[in-house]
Structure of Heme exporter protein CcmA:
Amino acid sequence: MTLPTKTAHSLVSAEKLTCIREERILFDELSFSVNEGDIIQIEGPNGAGKTSLLRILAGLSRPYAGSVFYRDEEIGRCRDEFNEDLLYLGHLAGVKSELTAEENLNFNLRLSGYDDFDTGEVLAKVNLKGFEEALAGHLSAGQHRRTALARLWHSNCKVWILDEPFTAIDKRGVAELEQLFLKHADNGGCVILTTHQDMGLIKDERLRKLKLEYRFV
Ligand SMILES: Nc1ncnc2c1ncn2[C@@H]1O[C@H](COP(=O)(O)OP(=O)(O)OP(=O)(O)O)[C@@H](O)[C@H]1O
């Protein structure tokens, strides 16, 4: 399925994005739009520019040329509104090793402006019941990642931009995440993610793919 370009109903859209790193053009004049209910997978080999694209879409880095829009406004002009509606999880995902799982979740949810939540309940949803007091640095790789992902279960943000959310997550955890993504999309949100894994529950008719090729120049 190919991605359409910006329309009046677009939630997030990219217009003619060009990204250059170390004199290599990663992508050039890339345009597409993401609507409510969309689940978009950015595909491509290592080094193709997937993370670079997600960071540009999230407003964390600037493109060489082109613009990103949230609804109808360029993200630089609606920064506060966009940030309120955006949940971005990068590779490192903001989990601090010296804090416990509970402290990390508490910190991340409060940073996102939430103050009414039960950390134990949210951590239980990512199978971390009993590990609330464990230092994140002492958790397994999958549990560490689950600590980061927990905030998805308590998010009102419409736009989820997720860089490799399934890394180190077991099969059951991947299925639970896929279910959550479908529910989020059904509720009018959108998910833009990268993954090298095939998704079992999110079938082709629900998934739109954007493939980045590795470019040598
Ligand atoms: N801030 C930066 N400064 C210089 N080069 C960068 C920067 N960020 C990324 N790059 C380079 O851009 C290229 C694309 O990196 P990016 O992380 O976007 O790829 P990716 O498709 O996400 O790869 P992977 O599948 O390995 O995660 C790489 O060659 C990387 O070295």
In short: The chain has a mean pLDDT of 93.
